[in-house]
Specification:
Structural class: alpha/beta
Strand content: 15-25%
Largest sheet: 9 strands, mixed
Number of helices: 8
Distance between the termini: 26 Å
Length: 288
């Protein structure tokens, strides 16, 4: 995986069991690692182009499921599966890992170019928790960690539950009481220092919990002035972006790519070099 971007091809919908996915891959290169991406609550595989296009252009095969909570699926309010959205999301991700033959076959010219032994994951908001579960985070006491996923990026992800949640939140979103103590796999946690979630009484620091409450081997990227959309990652000109900042998005593209490259290849110094050169106006990195 080089530093220069190459053209990308995206194919969707690719049917995988009960869900469809979008597959984005570089048109050239071999030994390509797989990057699973989990969208935020209500979003879909059609979103997050600013990140997905960049990652694919820099050598990753990015697979994006459309989860059951997506607004595009129109699930009725009284559907009993709503209380277990978190579990369905994890199932979507493992289904992709079990079906990489389908992923390879979906993109013309991709067969034989994927390194199935190198798998990472990334997710935004609710998607960050989904990735966390694959790395060892536990919801309702369940251990659904998948050793095939060797590292992850958790973007603007919820922190702990209990008294840190506003009244009524846990009844609406019962998965918001996570246990980070067994999330042992390496991860980059990204938070915005202006991301004050309506779900929590804690303020922006709530999104640092996946870093501070999990075992060592993590890094935390704090983005200055960033709100929940982290400068605009949900999409190009996406309506939900409240803090549009192309420079912030560009930094996040560069830093997440560098982190994942080094996570897959410890001899690759991309992350240490990138983390050491983050402009103070953009953010700061700490590790433990």
């Amino acid at each position: 995986m080089g530093s220069m971007s190459v053209p990308v091809v995206s194919v969707s919908p690719v049917e995988m069991g009960e869900r469809s996915v979008r597959v984005s891959a570089p048109v050239s290169g071999s030994g390509l690692p797989v990057l699973l991406f989990s969208h935020g609550f209500g979003s879909s595989s059609r979103a997050y182009g600013p990140l997905v296009d960049h990652w694919a252009g820099h050598g990753f095969v990015v697979v994006q499921p459309t989860h059951l909570d997506s607004r595009t699926l129109g699930l009725p309010d009284d559907d009993p599966r709503r209380r277990t959205f978190w579990r369905h999301r994890v199932d979507d991700m493992t289904r992709v890992l079990d079906g990489l033959d389908v992923v390879e076959a979906a993109v013309p010219g991709l067969a034989g170019r994927v390194d199935r032994d190198r798998v990472v994951a990334a997710g935004h908001s609710f998607g960050g928790q989904t990735v966390g579960v694959l790395l060892g985070l536990r919801v309702e006491g369940e251990d659904l960690a998948d050793p095939r996923v060797t590292a992850g990026v958790l973007l603007a992800t919820a922190g702990r539950g209990g008294d840190d949640l506003r009244p009524g939140v846990i009844e609406m979103f019962p998965w918001l009481d996570p246990d980070f103590s067994a999330m042992k796999a390496p991860a980059l946690v990204v938070m915005g220092d202006a991301d004050a979630s309506a779900l929590s009484t804690r303020g922006p620091d709530w999104s640092a919990d996946p870093y501070r409450l999990s075992p060592p081997g993590k890094s935390l990227l704090t983005l200055v002035g960033a709100e929940h959309s982290l400068g605009g990652i949900p999409g190009y000109e996406a309506a939900e972006t409240t803090d549009e900042d192309p420079a912030r998005v560009a930094a996040l593209q560069r830093l997440t790519t560098a982190y994942l490259r080094s996570a897959l290849d410890p001899a690759d110094a991309a992350w240490s070099e990138a983390a050491a050169t983050v402009p103070a106006a953009i953010g700061r990195v700490e590790s433990r």
